[in-house]
Amino acid sequence: MEKEIQCDDLELEELLCVRVFSNTFHVIGLDRYYKAITEWAERKVLTGEESDTLLILASLNLEPIPDRNEVEQYLKIYQREMNIQNPHPHYSALVWLRMQIGYLIASKSGEDVEGKLALFTHYFLDFPPRAFARSANILSNFYWELFDEVIPIFYSKASEMSENELILHVKERLTPLYRKLDNSDWMGILAREIFV
Question: Which top-rank group of organisms is this from (predicted)?
Answer without folding.
Answer: Bacteria
